[in-house]
Amino acid sequence: MTAISNRASARPAPSSTILSIKGLTKIFGGLTAVNSVDLEIPRQSIVSVIGPNGAGKTTFFNMITGIYEPSSGSVDLDGVSLLGLRPDQVTSAGIARTFQNIRLFASMDSQENVMVGRHSRLKAGYIDSLLRTKRFHESEKEAEDVANLMLEFVGLSRFRHELATNLPYGDQRKLEIARALATSPKLVLLDEPAAGMNPRETEELKSLIRRIRDDLGVTVCLIEHDMRLVMTLSEYITVLDYGSKIAEGLPHEVRNNPKVMEAYLGRGAAAGEYGKEEQLKGGANA
Amino acid sequence: MDFATLAPFLVGVVISGLVLGFVYAIIALGYTMVYGVLQLINFAHSEVFVTGAVVGFEIFRVLNGVEMNGYLKLLLALIAAMVASGLLNILIERLAYRPLRNAPRLVPLITAIGVSLILQDLIRIIEGFQGRFDLTYQLPTGFSTPFCGPESSCAGVGKFLGGIGISLQIKEVIVVLVALVSLAALNYLVNFTKLGRAIRAVAQDRVTAGLMGIDANGIISLTFLIGGALGGISGVLFGLKFGTVNAYSGFDPGIVAFTAAVLGGIGSIPGAVLGGLVLGVIQNLIGVTNILGGALNIANLGVIDSSYQRIGAFLVLVLILIFKPTGLLGRSNVEKV
Amino acid sequence: MTAIRPGSQPPVAAPDRSVALIVLAVISSALLLISQESSWLARLPSALANFLKNPLVASLVLTFFLANLLFAYRWKASLWAKLLVGGLSLFLILPWAGRDNTSVLDLAIQIGIFAALSLGLNIVVGLAGLLDLGYIAFFAVGAYTWGIFGSGQIGKVLTYFKDNSANNGPVVAVGGLVLLIVTALSLRAINRVGGKRTPVASWAFLLAALGLVIGVTLLVRGLVMLAAANAAGLTSGVNPNFFWLFLILAIAAAASVGVLIGLPVLKLKGDYLAIITLGLGEVIRVLANNLSTYTNGSQGITPIGSASVPWFNSLAGAIGFTPDQYSLFFLYFVVLIIIAVIILANMRLDRSKIGRAWIAIREDEIAAQAMGVPLVQTKLIAFATGASFAGIMGVIFAAKQGFISPESFILNQSISVLSMVVLGGLGSIPGVILGAAVVTILNISLLPSLGEATASLNLPPQVNPAQLQRLVFGGILVAMMLFRPEGLLPSVRQRRMMHEDDDPSGNMTPQDSLAGELKPENAAEVYSPGVATRADNERGGGTQ
After folding, report:
1. Is residue C439 a part of any domain in this protein?
2. Same domain for C287 and C147?
3. Partners of A237 in beta bridges
4. Which of B30, B214, B247, C289 is the most buried (most CB within 10 A)?
5. Class of the CATH domain delimited by A14-94+184-285
């Protein structure tokens, strides 16, 4: 995977924390969508942000990636503040993302989609493209190689020249992951990667996410509603409800946290007699 | 020019700008209503509006010798223009836009431009067969007399206006009154009737509105009918205000009115009215700067005369859109990520 | 047009048509030459000669001849046949026919100019998805760049300043320069406040921008005052050999105006962008109308010079061109070269990182930005590139017409170029060239000749076909959009999208994809049809 590593991710780790978020807040009009959330993501870990619908998870992602400007708080990637950066600058800094509602480029084939992900890492510019310089050819080759590598990594090589929109739904999600990985991120944010997947696809996704961390050395942070996936995959879980962090910790700690059950199932149900894990799962999927 | 003469002069300019602004506002409503339901810049609306003006001209011409109350003639002209423009607008939608409902957005835009060109020539040909090109409104006597000018002695608003040296003609007062009545009627229709609710529902989400049992195509036709009828009214008002129309005279006011609709926030009905009034006043203000002496002659920009009127409107638009990208009263359109 | 890869899109199972191509080319060339060469016409029976002389017939013959180039491009035929037909048509037959009837050359140049404009607008609208209704302004910038300097106008400007201003040129120039530097510095400072976001929507930014504009204006004015002493030497414009320099300058000027216009407005979307570009296009035209000191206002500038290359002139003379035709003959070849370069540039940009970024922005701005594509910068590049094509052709236009006035740059021209692009096929290089050719032939040759041909019928003026250009053109636009909305020669991309249902991949079965079952709303979003960006469709309030 050396082909896709860039200068940024090859640098020795200055600390064990890759992303450090403090007091992140977003207020829309009078509504506080995210309320002073802190989060530390350890390097090369897989962490999850969960919470009921409308808990502010996607808003949280949007602030990290620069789509929304936080009302207050700080986001530091490897000790460098990301505040005020545009989304493309955040991507250059080393955070890539996928989208809850798939956002592939409809008229491009899979390979081209992933090649766009390489945009910020290519050295060739406008003049190179016009004059077809050596640098242009090197860049194009790099983009193509990375794209093919990433398509292979997520298992979509056979769809290389298929229009992205012709892919089965689960594969479109994988294609988005490939596109995000092509940016050579240090950290990748996956927004509900398992949504709309059948159990077999979810299993594949689980191993894919593990391989992103193990083989590529990329830290993964995901928003997910599939509790089984979250519980088995995550090393650390943060729970949001109504924009505030209500719990965090190891999967089993979160699973047994009464506040979390209350958030998902309501006060009455949380006191019930059913198997707690099943409740949490069922509640999340409802 | 000292302040004592300048102030009433400017008030006069603003007031006649508002009269112009009401004409723009009604035209702008035609654009904004169609845009609301189809997200289409209906370039043909300027010709729909000219059609109204031409029909109005014909009514006044035919009734010219007839012994009849002038206001009744006006009413007939307005009704005829509304019907003609409304039906024409429905026809355009059925033939040119409906088949393209699911096409890329540029396609109906080009069609609209095509329809606009076709209508320009059709209007020219139809009037041309009668040997006419420039159509000069033959207004009932009395329409052009001053409404409480400086020399007349009347009470209330008229006295105030007369006192500061402003003379409005009866027809300009008619323009404002007709515009106000149309606005009130439209406001009632859109906000307080079942049909209005259906229009608003279709404008927000055509598919869901359809699922809720609303006949979306019917509502779109209705919207074109209303937009066209407003175009008809504005055509007659334009004829009243300016006196002359021809097949090509829809272009300029059309562009300004569309600018007004965008300025106010395209799709927003109050926005279109506000935009129209703002642009009317601004244009009039620019139009008189040369009377005030071309102060803005920095780089030999020439005399700031009426040819700057239209670009004045555009510069205002640029300024406002930079700060409010969806216009003065437009819904802020934050895309959900 | 030979620069398009010949044979890149042969119909799959079509038979080889090399012979047919050559036969047609010979027939149409012969017809064209006979109908234009008066000496040959004279030898024909008078009935036939009169038939060929009929303006409508002549126009159809010319159209038929130009259609050969299309056949050469489209048909399945051997490469040498294509090259032969294309090369001979462009380099021999057309100039030959143009020798006796310069309107043929004129039309060819006009097609070239509009093809370049369409290619430029295609980048902005077709690739980057930015609806620009004021595109003709960049053409105007190019035209006036050469128009002012290539004519006596520059002498008039300098004389005006010599006569009308006190001797304070240096003061004004230095003042402008200082203002320029101060505002540029403050712009940089503003840019840094609050991180790296560019706060275009702030009074500070606007004030600085205003300062920038005034600074440039003062600087230019000061320089003009300084140069005023040379007025006498420039009464017929600069040396025509500067034409080449001005080709480059026009590119730079148009691109700069593109950036200047683009910077404040490119964050607007869809129709807001459309109306504001329309407005700014009008601003440029009204300025051309009112800055009469520089542009001679609505009377326009004339005569405008053109470069002349001695050896080329003697070549033209040797093959029978009269001296007054040299410039047209020369410009025709210049246009061919420029068009070839523009097509090449267009193709190269299309198939590069930049092209991918443009299309990505068109399809989904938010996703593109999240993938590291800087939106404003990439859009500005599209704007500037499109503008530069228009700029360089503006110079050609000014030189060819010898006369420019604001009338040539009205909104209808922008709309006309847009219709060429859409008619030909958004995003498709051969498509927009064809669109430009079709619309130009229609407007300049076919419709007027229809009017001339029917002049003898004594039709009432209202229904004289020459008077019906709007009706016919509008009808064609509507019919085309209703029956072939993807354009005459749709781009490969578009064709794939349109036909994706016809040819499903074997791996794609409904069972495989849970899209429809689980998240229909997402599926609908991904499967949004057409070239409209998804954002557009979403704004469309559920038009999918």
Report:
1. no
2. yes
3. A48, A249
4. B30
5. alpha beta
Q: What is the mean pLDDT of residues C168-196?
A: 71
- Name every residue whose Cβ is closer than 8 Å to that of residue C9 and which is 6 or more positions away in sequence: C74, C430, C492
Q: C357 with C251, same domain?
A: yes
Q: Tell me which DSSP letter residue C468 carries.
A: G
What is the rounded distance in angstroms from the CA atom of residue A267 to the CA atom of residue A251? Answer: 21
Domain count along chain C: 3
Same domain as C336, residue C228: yes
Report the gap between the CA of C427 and the closest CA in chain A (Å).
Answer: 11
ipTM above 0.90, yes or no: no
CA distance C362 to chain A (A): 9
From chain A, pick out residues whose CB is under 8 angstroms from the CB of C513.
167-170
Q: With CA atoms as reference, report the closest residue to B313 among B262, B246, B267, B251.
A: B262
Q: Tell me the pLDDT tens digit for each residue of B148-174.
A: 655 555 656 666 666 666 667 888 889
The chain-wide mean pLDDT, for chain B, equals: 85
Cβ-based interface (< 8 Å): residues of B facing A: 336-337
**Dist. CA C21–CA C75, nearest whole Å:** 8
Q: Where are the domains of chain A?
A: 14-94+184-285
Question: What residues contact C156, with CB distance under 8 A and at least 6 apart?
Answer: C296
Find the residue in B nearest to A60 (Cα). B337
pLDDT digits (tens, 9 = 90+) for B240-293: 999 999 999 998 899 899 999 999 988 888 999 999 999 999 888 887 765 554
Those chains having 3 or more beta-carbon pairs within 8 angstroms of chain A are B, C
Residues C96, C124, single domain; the answer is: no
pTM of the entire structure?
0.87
Q: What local confidence, expressed as pLDDT, does residue B332 receive?
A: 65
Both C201 and C250 in one domain: the answer is yes
Contacts of B121 in chain C (CB under 8 A): 467-471, 474
* Residue A62 touches chain B, beta carbons under 8 Å: yes
Q: Domain residues for C2?
A: 1-100
Query: How close A25 comes to chain C (CA, Å)?
Result: 17
Compute the half-sphere exposure of residue C522: CA atoms within 13 Å on the CB side of its CA.
23
pLDDT at C12 over 70: no
C264, C423, C474 member nearest B117 (Cβ)? C474
Task: Please name the residue of chain A whose CA is at the shortest distance from the CA of residue B335.
Answer: A67
The answer as to whether C471 is a domain residue is no
Same domain, C162 and C247: yes
Top-tier CATH class for B3-139+195-323: mainly alpha
